[in-house]
């Protein structure tokens, strides 16, 4: 019986709130905008607080006398990090291509210049060029 009373109370409060909002749309809009602004200001304050309380970055520890196994592990980790950095850098760069002003064929003395950021992009461009050549021959 208690849960039914709570359900009825919730329903009547919801209906009263809806009636109040319908009667005063300006105050509802004001309170809504005020709540959104308060939330944005609170988020900004917490973000600034988090950034200002961050501990300063520590320099990497200097390598001391390491055994050969540890040195090999460090070298492998360094190589993996370099590969990851190189891969990320090549993915972030956009391919740079030079578009000729006039169409030219393979025998008119045009220079082939490698203007791609990575070998994968060069290979992709060569495959695309080969497809285009085949399509031109078919047409």
UniProtKB/TrEMBL annotation:
<keyword id="KW-0472">Membrane</keyword>
<dbReference type="InterPro" id="IPR052461">
    <property type="entry name" value="EVA1_A/B"/>
</dbReference>
<dbReference type="Pfam" id="PF14851">
    <property type="entry name" value="FAM176"/>
</dbReference>
<feature type="compositionally biased region" description="Acidic residues">
    <location>
        <begin position="66"/>
        <end position="84"/>
    </location>
</feature>
<keyword id="KW-1133">Transmembrane helix</keyword>
<feature type="region of interest" description="Disordered">
    <location>
        <begin position="53"/>
        <end position="106"/>
    </location>
</feature>
<dbReference type="GO" id="GO:0016020">
    <property type="term" value="C:membrane"/>
</dbReference>
<protein>
    <submittedName>
        <fullName>EVA1B protein</fullName>
    </submittedName>
</protein>
<feature type="transmembrane region" description="Helical">
    <location>
        <begin position="28"/>
        <end position="49"/>
    </location>
</feature>
<dbReference type="InterPro" id="IPR039500">
    <property type="entry name" value="EVA1_dom"/>
</dbReference>
<comment type="similarity">
    <text>Belongs to the EVA1 family.</text>
</comment>
<keyword id="KW-0812">Transmembrane</keyword>
<feature type="domain" description="EVA1">
    <location>
        <begin position="7"/>
        <end position="139"/>
    </location>
</feature>
């Amino acid at each position: 019986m208690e849960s039914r009373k709570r359900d009825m109370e919730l329903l009547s409060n919801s209906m009263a709130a809806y009636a109040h909002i319908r009667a005063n749309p300006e105050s509802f809009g004001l309170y809504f905008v005020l709540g959104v602004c308060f939330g944005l200001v609170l988020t900004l304050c917490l973000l600034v607080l988090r950034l200002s309380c961050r501990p300063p970055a520590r320099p990497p520890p200097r390598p001391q006398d390491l055994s050969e196994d540890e040195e090999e592990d460090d070298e492998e980790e360094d190589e993996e990090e370099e590969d990851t950095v190189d891969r990320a850098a090549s993915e972030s760069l956009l391919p740079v291509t030079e578009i000729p002003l006039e169409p030219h064929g393979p025998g008119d003395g045009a220079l082939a210049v490698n203007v791609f950021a990575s070998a994968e992009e060069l290979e992709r461009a060569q495959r695309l060029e080969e497809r285009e050549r085949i399509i031109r021959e078919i047409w």
